[in-house]
Amino acid sequence: MQSDATPxxxxxxxxxxxxxxxxxxxxxxxxxxxxxxxxxxPAIIGTADAMMKSSNVFLVGYEKTGGGHCTAIVRxxxxxxxxxxxxxxxTARQFGQFVSATLIPRPPANLEAVLPIAxxxxxxxxxxxxxxxxxxxxxxxxxxxxxxxAADAMTKSAEITLLSHETIGEGLCTIIIQGSLSNVxxxxxxxxxxxxxxxxxxxxxxxxxxxxxxxxSLPKTKAVKTQEPMRLPLKLEERQPTxxxxxxxxxxxxxxxxxxxxxESVVIPELTTEEL
Length: 276
Fold this sequence. Notes:
about 280 residues; alpha+beta; Alpha-Beta Plaits; four-stranded antiparallel β-sheet; 8 helices; about 40% helix
């Protein structure tokens, strides 16, 4: 049975890749723009999560404008962006931290060139994928000591991983953790109690199943590489045969190494007084 598939040469593969990139660029410039602003970093993460899950939109990222204000930026079709902005506004209002929202059907090229409202092509790869069941937890405090104390309590109360931290002004600091949903919930509760004991707790957020776009948009911290212990010796010499090693252990029979023989005792005659 013959196959209908035809082999793809290197030149044809390059043209297909360029065509795909061109379609991606056209899709990017023809999409609508949606923005929702809040006064808390955990709130904007929860808002962005609701926007992506409500319709087929792409999360460009966040814009922090100081004073605790954060804006989630999404792109997509006009209908999808309209639904996403509506879902994001409702979510932000539920948190009591909604500031403003807007939708722009077709932003001009000059607007995209000046403002951070367009995604890079490398960000489009793998968009919409799931994170493999890991949950995300965010805890925001007013004051750095409270955040550090909360992070310490979170790591000691459950098996979670600290991803990074974020500051957005007005003394607001957010610690971001990842782990199973049960562990994240336990850790966030422990962090809340510690943050309230030390200072001021501002906002918390637990996202059970975030999309891959959300994980990509979170601030990242470089992982600390654990140094492996040095193993000595670095270069082992060839082992000698057993017989040669045994010969080395036998003491040499040189005369100078032999024990001194006891000389025969010499009798010294007693001297009389007259001889002296």
